[in-house]
Amino acid sequence: MAAPPILMLQDIRLGFGTTPLLTGATLSVSPGERLALIGRNGSGKSTLMKIAAGLAQADGGTRFVQPGATLRYLEQEPDLAGFPNVLAYVEAGLAPGDDPYRARYLLEQLGLTGEEAPANLSGGEARRAALARVLAPSPDILLLDEPTNHLDLPAIEWLEQEIGAMRSALVLISHDRRFLETMTREMLWLDRGTTRRLARGFAHFEEWRDAVLEQEEQEAHKLDRQIAREEDWMRYGVTARRKRNVRRVAELAGLRQQRRERRAAQGGVRMAVAEGEGSGTLVAAADSISKSYGDRMVVRDFSTRILRGDRVGIVGPNGAGKTTLLSMLTGTLAPDSGEIRLGTGIAMVTLDQRREALDPNTTLSEALTGKRGDQVWVNGQPRHVIGYMKDFLFLPEQARTPVSALSGGERGRLLLARAFATPSNLLVLDEPTNDLDLETLDLLQEQIAEYSGTVIVVSHDRDFLDRVATNVIAWEGEGRWQDYAGGYSDMVAQRGHGVRARGEPARGPATPKPASAAAPAVRKKLSFKDQHELETLPARMKKLEAEAAKLKEILADPDLYSRDRARFDKATELLGRTETALAEAEERWLELEMLREELEG
């Protein structure tokens, strides 16, 4: 027999003005249950969670908490005002009889000392302090709203183990698929104001959700056909011409009312990446690059090749130097030693996780148009800004909304909209999954898969990396970075563990066995011919790049075709041959450079 619920919400209704947000939501939590609360951004998940925590009042419905049950709620923006330090804030969440040592233990595990002043905390540090406060008492019910925000991979994996060892019931809001799969066993889907429950894990959720929506669509089609039949009877029925059948008229009115009240499923984001001209085969080559700040080595003697079409993931704990490595690979930061070579024709677009590219004083439409009229250019075609906004789930009335008033998820969608409207062949994405709901994440992954250019992404989202990355560059400790083929799970399989926290003993891939004494002798260096070719190819590539640039400048003349057709044709033919020769030179240089590394390594 199932245990009685210790928390129950029934028929919760809430609206803002004339807009209904919750129209009959329910939530039931029994001891030890692990429940995921799933829904689109703006569907009311956080609001329902606050009502469950007793911090918000519904317009209607009932809330019940078992007497004596302890409940802790992690909000997205915690308030530490009034506490002298972080430790005092965390200890204030303990109940009589709780172990005070646990507060210090949790703070240490989350990278805090407890002596920090609340006024000096970053947003991420405040979230980690709040996480320690709700975990310290080991409550009967944990209500966690996006607990992995601002956590790096080692902290996320630690949190999975910590919560997994607790006996608390759990209600979790998260957009991290891997975290949801690990931590929850049942799904509560909040959709258009109401809730549906699935007594299975997250792995089954999306298939179930799609089946529900498909069934709704079929029922809506049946309703439309029934209305059409009744309207046809009203106009042409023999009985109707003589005398109105009051009952059928009332039924038709009821059907029409049902259709009006039917809340359609929220539309999906429509993304299309504006792609520029193709880059060369080689996008970036790093040869023994190093970078340090003071006595701290951030990147030590790292080499890699990024080719056109690669999807490169960069992973490591906070503070390891992921952004520094990314800046060097994209040419925006020079290494202290070693060499970075960028390929030809690179058109780079960057998505910044800190949203610093957005001016908070501009409106949404100005941010998309650059304050130039009401058009957005996508793939060389003009789009009206309102139509383009709708592709990213913005309402027309939000066009004049200041960026400062947008939620985190809305700012994330705005940055995606801006990045995808800019022609590019290299996408640089720094934590692109922050604040995006699951459906938007799906579409982002599809666009990356279909993008013909190159992608470099820094992310703590393990599932996202598994879905998009062709190789992963992982931090190995003490400034060392290693390139692994495949996604995050492939990297874990190759090295035997995930990303470790800074300060943990580094353990790289298994040491290869020594070669057999009977192994045949191999070359130790390049032949004279290959060495000469390797040394002279960079100058040849530079010359070909200059020739291609000159030919492009000639062809940029809009009147050349009509004024001198022969010169136009000759320049076009020469450009084609030059770009082919450049691509062949790049491929040959890359082949020789990799051979040199293999022989010397």
Order the strands across the largest sheet as they lie in space.
5-6-7-3-8-9
Instruction: Report helical residue fraction.
Output: 25-40%
Q: Classify the secondary structure makeup into a structural class.
A: alpha/beta
CATH-assigned fold name of the largest domain:
Rossmann fold
> What is the level 1 CATH name of the largest domain?
Alpha Beta
β-strand amount:
15-25%
> What is the total domain count?
4
Number of E-type strands: 20
CATH-assigned homologous superfamily of the largest domain: P-loop containing nucleotide triphosphate hydrolases
Q: What is the residue-mean pLDDT, rounded to a whole number?
A: 82
Sum up the structure in keywords:
Rossmann fold; 601 residues; 40% helix; six-stranded mixed beta sheet; alpha/beta; 4 domains
List the helices and strands and how they pair.
Elements: E1 7-16, E2 19-29, E3 34-38, H1 45-53, E4 60-65, E5 71-74, H2 86-91, H3 101-109, H4 123-135, E6 141-145, H5 153-164, E7 169-173, H6 177-183, E8 186-191, E9 194-198, H7 205-236, H8 238-242, H9 246-261, E10 282-293, E11 296-307, E12 311-315, H10 322-329, E13 337-342, E14 348-351, H11 364-369, E15 375-378, E16 381-384, H12 385-391, H13 408-421, E17 426-430, H14 438-450, E18 454-458, H15 462-468, E19 471-477, E20 480-485, H16 488-495, H17 528-555, H18 560-563, H19 565-600
Parallel strand pairs: 3-7, 3-8, 5-6, 6-7, 12-18, 12-19, 14-17, 17-18
Antiparallel strand pairs: 1-2, 1-4, 8-9, 10-11, 10-13, 15-16, 19-20
Helix pairs in contact: 7-9, 17-19
